[in-house]
Amino acid sequence: MLKVKTPKTAKARREVEKRAPKLVENRKKTLILQGTKTSNVLNAVLTEIHHLKKESSIRYTRKNENIRPFESGGETSLEFFSLKTDCSLFVFGSHAKKRPHNLVIGRTYDHHIYDLVEVGVENFKTMESFSYEKKLAPRVGSKPFFAFIGEGFQNVEELKHLKEVLLDLFRGEVVENLNLAGVDRVYVCTAVSSTRVFFTHCALRLKKSGTVVPRMELVEVGPSMDFVVRRHRLPNDGLRKEAMKTVTEQPKKKVKNVSGDVIQGKIGKIYIPDQQVGDMALSHKAKGLKRERREAKANNEANEHGSKKKKADSE
């Protein structure tokens, strides 16, 4: 049995919590690595994918003998690298006689293999083979559009799975608000048949249209390639249900002394401290105070006059 190590310090505990599954996911990173034998075409494909995901990808250039997706026991090293690099996506390249220019794209959940899609690469063209104005080159980290053309992405199970994986691989960070001026590229995926998909990367060129909305043109900037779907493995229902949990509504922060009522609506409580009226400093210009002083002065004068009259009568 494998020994489970528990964190002993607060810093290590925080790092483990960062890598744990979350309802609100953080930015996904991609691990790009290769098998024992690869081809020049496949090395170029892995380099181009790393360039497209430069800010959120890790590239391993060493050969890995123990990684064999779709085989029992051949995914342990892949899960170890996923845990080591904290990557939830991976792209693995290998080359063999039966499966030339083979590319395996997969996802992990809690650093265990979630699903796999295996495709073959054909008719590959690099970015350098396309000629275009350099100012049209997409900026690193920009948010892309996706265009899936063909009925196969809705009807064929393999293409539906490939669509999910490609969206997860190239969509970047999930954002709530988006500035359309910063959207400068699009990924176009065309389902030629039930097993073949044409993949290309284009830049968006804005031109005048005579209206407020500009006219868009696509300029192919590369890379482009054909994906031939070979094998795929879907997750089981229990794992999919656990991994697809989402937060429906963010919990609202409780406001003190405020409650709601169906009839009266929003009700609030106001707490007023006890007023010490006897300790309050009164102004000398108060009208009520002046009247009291006049009455007191008049009473004093009346009392003095009465006492003098009594004294005179007694004499």
Automatic annotation (TrEMBL):
Residues 28-238 form the Brix domain. Pfam families: Brix. Its main location: nucleus. It comes from the Eukaryota. Keywords: Nucleus. It is found in: Nucleus, Nucleolus. Residues 292-315 have a biased composition (Basic and acidic residues). GO terms for biological process: maturation of LSU-rRNA from tricistronic rRNA transcript (SSU-rRNA, 5.8S rRNA, LSU-rRNA); ribosomal large subunit assembly. InterPro entries: Brix, Rpf2. GO terms for molecular function: rRNA binding. GO terms for cellular component: nucleolus. Residues 282-315 are annotated as: Disordered. Belongs to the RPF2 family. This is Ribosome production factor 2 homolog. It comes from Tetracentron sinense (Spur-leaf).
